[in-house]
Backbone:
């Protein structure tokens, strides 16, 4: 038969996207928009959320909370923000998972050489798009 059949059914598409996707594909889904100041400064609109970035939560019950990202869970597709916690019945405080689309990155952690390269590459692509 040769070709692989792909479904258009939403439930199957969602299953492939969320549950069966490879980790490198899931990592691409962990992007969040940059704040307006960062967009003007860098010339790009969104980046992958990383540990030690500072984010502002713009949706949900923690709306308006700004904090540092303490953990990024690629497998679950969620981030954990400093100060966004709840107390469990046994008294432990646990972080609440937040979807990266519900936050805006306000400050980037530029301690990684790879990230600087990604930003420079994205700047170059944006400049090409504006020219052409």
Residues:
């Amino acid at each position: 038969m040769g070709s692989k059949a792909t479904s258009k059914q939403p439930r199957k598409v969602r299953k492939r996207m969320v549950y069966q996707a490879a980790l490198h594909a899931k990592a691409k889904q962990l992007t969040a928009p940059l704040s307006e100041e960062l967009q003007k400064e860098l010339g790009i609109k969104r980046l992958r959320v990383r540990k030690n970035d500072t984010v502002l939560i713009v949706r949900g019950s923690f709306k308006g909370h700004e904090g540092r990202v303490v953990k990024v869970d690629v497998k679950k597709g969620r981030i954990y923000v400093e100060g966004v916690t709840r107390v469990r019945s046994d008294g432990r405080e646990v972080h609440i998972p937040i979807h990266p689309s519900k936050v805006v990155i306000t400050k980037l952690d530029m301690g990684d050489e790879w990230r600087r390269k990604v930003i420079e590459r994205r700047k170059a692509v944006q400049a090409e798009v504006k020219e052409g």
Q: What stands out?
A: The helical segments are 10-19, 23-28, 36-42, 113-131. The radius of gyration is 18 Å. The first strand starts at residue 31 and ends at 33.
